[in-house]
Amino acid sequence: MAAAAAAAVGGQQPSQPELPASGLALDKAATAAHLKAALSRPDNRAGAEELQALLERVLSAERPLAAAAGGEDAAAAGGGGGPGAAEEEALEWCKCLLAGGGGYDEFCAAVRAYDPAALCGLVWTANFVAYRCRTCGISPCMSLCAECFHQGDHTGHDFNMFRSQAGGACDCGDSNVMRESGFCKRHQIKSSSNIPCVPKDLLMMSEFVLPRFIFCLIQYLREGYNEPAADGPSEKDLNKVLQLLEPQISFLEDLTKMGGAMRSVLTQVLTNQQNYKDLTSGLGENACVKKSHEKYLIALKSSGLTYPEDKLVYGVQEQSAGTSSLAVQGFVGATGTLGQVDSSDEDDQDGSQGLGKRKRVKLSSGTKDQSIMDVLKHKSFLEELLFWTIKYEFPQKMVTFLLNMLPDQEYKVAFTKTFVQHYAFIMKTLKKSHESDTMSNRIVHISVQLFSNEELARQVTEECQLLDIMVTVLLYMMESCLIKSELQDEENSLHVVVNCGEALLKNNTYWPLVSDFINILSHQSVAKRFLEDHGLLVTWMNFVSFFQGMNLNKRELNEHVEFESQTYYAAFAAELEACAQPMWGLLSHCKVRETQEYTRNVVRYCLEALQDWFDAINFVDEPAPNQVTFHLPLHRYYAMFLSKAVKCQELDLDSVLPDQEMLMKLMIHPLQIQASLAEIHSNMWVRNGLQIKGQAMTYVQSHFCNSMIDPDIYLLQVCASRLDPDYFISSVFERFKVVDLLTMASQHQNTVLDAEHERSMLEGALTFLVILLSLRLHLGMSDDEILRAEMVAQLCMNDRTHSSLLDLIPENPNPKSGIIPGSYSFESVLSAVADFKAPVFEPGGSMQQGMYTPKAEVWDQEFDPVMVILRTVYRRDVQSAMDRYTAFLKQSGKFPGNPWPPYKKRTSLHPSYKGLMRLLHCKTLHIVLFTLLYKILMDHQNLSEHVLCMVLYLIELGLENSAEEESDEEASVGGPERCHDSWFPGSNLVSNMRHFINYVRVRVPETAPEVKRDSPASTSSDNLGSFQNSGTAQVFSLVAERRKKFQEIINRSSSEANQVVRPKTSSKWSAPGSAPQLTTAILEIKESILSLLIKLHHKLSGKQNSYYPPWLDDIEILIQPEIPKYSHGDGITAVERILLKAASQSRMNKRIIEEICRKVTPPVPPKKVTAAEKKTLDKEERRQKARERQQKLLAEFASRQKSFMETAMDVDSPENDIPMEITTAEPQVSEAVYDCVICGQSGPSSEDRPTGLVVLLQASSVLGQCRDNVEPKKLPITEEEQIYPWDTCAAVHDVRLSLLQRYFKDSSCLLAVSIGWEGGVYVQTCGHTLHIDCHKSYMESLRNDQVLQGFSVDKGEFTCPLCRQFANSVLPCYPGSNVENNPWQRPSNKSIQDLIKEVEELQGRPGAFPVSISSETNLSKEMESVMKDIKNTTQKKYRDYSKTPGSPDNDFLFMYSVARTNLELELIHRGGNLCSGGASTAGKRSCLNQLFHVLALHMRLYSIDSEYNPWRKLTQLEEMNPQLGYEEQQPEVPILYHDVTSLLLIQILMMPQPLRKDHFTCIVKVLFTLLYTQALAELSVKCSEEDRSAWKHAGALKKSTCDAEKSYEVLLSFVISELSKGKLYHEEGTQECAMVNPIAWSPESMEKYLQDFCLPFLRITSLLQHHLFGEDLPSCQEEEEFSVLASCLGLLPTFYQTEHPFISASCLDWPVPAFDIITQWCFEIKSFTERHAEQGKALLIQESKWKLPHLLQLPENYNTIFQYYHRKTCSVCTKVPKDPAVCLVCGTFVCLKGLCCKQQSYCECVLHSQNCGAGTGIFLLINASVIIIIRGHRFCLWGSVYLDAHGEEDRDLRRGKPLYICKERYKVLEQQWISHTFDHINKRWGPHYNGL
Description:
This protein is an alpha+beta fold.
């Protein structure tokens, strides 16, 4: 057989004398055993050769590899069986040989026994569910498989479950990645000690066989790979090859799973260089091997460099004959130039050493570090296997095999080195790949296993230059998509940036490489090497500069941009991932003093790169107008390292700062961004489309802010603290383009800004200054304070859920970690600042989540508007925060009015940044503040309350941070400062506040009012006398100031002053020819800041002299000013606070304030405003007011609507029910009046124009779900707990009906029971009525309406025009009397015998109905159509129970069952009993009355065969004919087997409507006698033989007493004696009696039993009476329910006394002598039981005590459901579903959307919803924890009943935190199911097209 196999496999076989012919004939096992024996001998050379020869034959690669390799080798296959068969044969051989003759399975088991399983190492692929525990993890990437996680102890840890995106491996047992305390039980023991040594001969064969096997695999891979054509590799071919190799690779994978012993053999094979050399050198004579070697060389060569600019380099390789193959075989380490192929040894060494010494990489250089990029040299199987794995784009199987080997330590190191060696090649393949997403995931799957281990990463960094390789590869990758930067100087710019439109950036192709880089930088030892290596830092800064200034925006000034590019996503992602995250990684290692050197290095190279950048873009001093880029990573690197240096490393800030000129340049671009933000929010960029707003939002968004806006603002703070404050302030106002606005004149021209943008830009500038001066994020706050401030800001905007808070609070994005620095502090801060609001449930309301809301003291002391403004993505959030703050102050009574943003004292500044406060004490700012105060006081246009608020905020900040000693400053006034200009004497705000300014010269348009006034005489004597002749010096020009300062700084800083580039004076500031001409005017001001503030106080309070200095009453205030840290109030309080601070800081100020207040201030002149001015001024105000009014109206409207909805829609509150139809109370009017909600007219319903009730018809199986036991069923969570529906109400009724149909006549069976337990039709209404013709036109209009509705009009669905409740039909109202005033109610005194006759006559009269059906009126047509609707509501199988399809009996049964269904459901809604009494829960919204009319009308079309009317059997004695009924093949159903409630409905619906009350009572009385007899019969069957005989005698004695007919004992004994005539009791001893617990029957227990049996009937009957006659139900205790209902129904005689215990039998009222009729009834049964005793007994027992329906009980913890179901296979298709779901009604497991289980275009969930719930399905989606409701053809997501510890849902299990059942929510769900209100309460419905 072996020979045959060999022939089939290997073509011709060389003659081999070693193997005797007989050996060939032996089977495989024998050969293997023989070889193993041969090899075990000490001299095993012969055996080895023999084995080699066999393997050579078996594993020869000369077979064709399917069609992939082309047809050229086809001839070589010397035998049939096809390639598939041959491969299997080869695998069989291998297995046999490995096992050495034994069985393969035993061999596997034997090897496993030697597995020292210290590591789990389970490898998984994408979508696998794994766990991550942050408490146990050392590396952020740590993950555990579910088994190890549950075996370990992680209680109380911070863990979560996640779906793996890229695949991963379990780290259990690896102490490099996780703490040992988290290991599971299996991997805790270091088990190597007690594992015995592996016996040598066990794995001996493996060592021989596996090298050949792996070589064979490699040959296949070589053969199968055809160098792709120009259009990239055709994936089809590659996949074909891989499919053929599937069994081989799986075989290897299985080997790895055998445990450590086998892994170490494989490691030896894979890494042994000698083996590789011997087998693959291609020097042998075997042609096949040679050929495959050639293919390998070609593949290697083709994967060389593919960059366009290196085409030339390629040429060199091609020409130097044959060198490429030399290079490949690794004789070269080719360093720089590829020319020196035959380089000497020292070059070779230089190749490996010279990496660190690389200079800056310039793009032009042809001598890139080629060794990293080009040279691959394979020395072992492992290396070549990885090479092919990459070539084939990482097939999943190969990846899994390579990863499965990782638990072997030796392999891990070898593999990591190989991976690094191939890194550049991986990058090239990735860039070319079409499936870059999949490939990225597979790469990361591997690399994250290798680089998360610090020890390994360090080793590879040292031995293989890992860092150099990574940085170079990243640089190479980005270089392929560079474009010229257009920032600043478009023509001459030398700077290049990445092009964000390229696929490389758009598709994030770079992320695997970046994420590896970030991963290795998280290891301290590696990061330190990086920070010490200057060459690397230079290269890295070079890499970062590619992103500096990318995605430049140019403001569109004329038309709207045609195409909004979305490249900004790519740009922000790239900066965050490629620049910011590595930066955070590096920063995390610069925490202590010892690391100062690193910071210096980074800062140094960062500044160099910035300097190069400024040079490259030709930057002088002015940024180009109308341009902005949000990407300045170099600035941000610089800023963040500065911040760290001061905060953690105690570096002196000045030692790492550049000169002033560089600082001025540094501040320009970040400032430009801040100004642009204001412009964007002022709608100045609106022509650039929405995307520019998107950029502005992303820039401040929580994931980006601390890598973007925070460093920018910090950098500006540093610049401001070191530059001249006047220069800085004037730059700010100039950047924000509001310089021209800062004039005293009432009119001005702004040359660079439209008037409508001025106000918001001025607000922007002031807000920016406030943020700049008050933000302390990097200036001295501790981490915990920062966290607290961030949290308070977020909570003040809105209440937040726990997860959204986690998401909104910026973390150090040390990426991929998911670790929030100090998540414990997160929880403790959260509990300190916020209160938890548990989720609330209103049954009609939306599902709320658990929210956190700020504590009162947070509002009181910590609300910080500055932080809120900084962190809001949407401006409306600021308003929301202020509104909430206002509400808090009103509620707590702290401040009644409209408060201003509160002023908050700041944390003290770090000493290094003290200079920042000089901004507050510079004249430029004081002049601006003075001007703005003046303008506000004079009511100039464009100034808002917001501006005033900011101005006061800045003044207050200045007072808080003023220089201590005032005396010094007053002395220095005479100094050189004097010459600055004569606005203010000094620069201290405290003294400048009191300085009076008398005259100011302004430039105004000639039209301005100021020009008309006479200028004051120049001789006016004042302290500014020098003022007029000092020319234009007093025309305060910010621009001139800035120019002057800039010049000074430049001159100071450059020694060669003559080479200074003069600033270009831009013409745009002086607008020469702009009309109207500017002229100079001199204004008389005579104010100081203090006097302006006091006047402002008067203006704000609207009273004269409103300000009174408080210290005049209490001087203490000044000495110890009780100024709280935090102050509430409005503008008036702010002014008072400022004046108090000013006074307490200086005696002079105090005196001057008192003086100003003494002069009775003249009233502020009424504004003389021109009409035009007034218009513009009012416009804003008016708009604001209109907006407020609108808000108010909307709010009012919303609240009205809400209250209406509550009354109209609320499902569960009878209290606030308002009757919807107007019914008139006067008794004389008997006609009911209806309102039509469409046309609004009222009137009665008539035959011609009937009115109808808006109703929703739905099929329901809720009743069928009742069970008879109290214990609710649990959802199965193990294989054992399955649920069987045999004990449900529906099942029991089904069984009963089919039993009856087996033995009795069909037509009679269909009258003996009710159907509709499953698929019964439930009718509900919202109570609104409409004319049926109006409804038709309404439907027509809906049909033509193009709007997409959530319902289908074609199916007759609509929403009620008034309350919008969902509906699908209209139930006609029967014309005639109102229920309440029914003339038929008056009792008559006829005897029961008379009434019985009347009833019988009325039933016999066929159409005795006021409306004759024959005449087709509108009304009757509508009644017919609604009946059709009712029938079509449910499926045919729920209507047709008859054996003869379509028989009228079916319809008859269906109709009275509809009535039954609705009554039973109402009973359930009331909780299963009528104890609560009162009106119907549905109140006026019940439509049973109308429904009865429609049903009765249709029932009377069918007459019951008069010879069989159950009424006769109940009320008349017939002559007993013993022979009767045997002749018929099937008898009628005995009356005692009838369902009494069904009889009741049949009797009532057969009567003419409206029914008379006494007829109703008569029917009830008669039926009660039957019911009571049934109860006695059942009791007799259930008790034991002894009990029966005892009762029989006891009763017989009393038979002669007067009220024998009303004594249950007598009746019971009679029933027993009658029934014992048949064979009913003979079947004793069967299991029947084991069912009944042997209780001693006492009279009490028997009475209770009888009452319980009768109660369901009494309840339904009372409800019916309530609906037909409008009588209220009395309320009562549970124990007296029977007697109350009985008397309510008229069963109890009124004179009945309740003193002695109540006996149910006293309600009996026999129409004929009791004993006779009972005899008659029992006779029917006797004749039946003679043949079928067993069934006869079963039919007597009717289960009447159903418990309320419930959904399945769910387990406390969601994980128990998830773990059982998410891997469970579907019973239909036996696959594990992609979206598993489970039905919460019956526990069935289904595939959601699974095409596998589709039947006739219905997917499984939809199908199940029809079978289980008649169209309503409630499913729990296992993978999402969400519940989905299917209702008919629509579905909706209901929400989740599982919440986490913070009361939140976790849809799709994204967060993976433990979830717990929320009982309230589940109750709400169950309530909606039982009350059929899914349609009304859930709003978001959509069609499912049967696809769920």
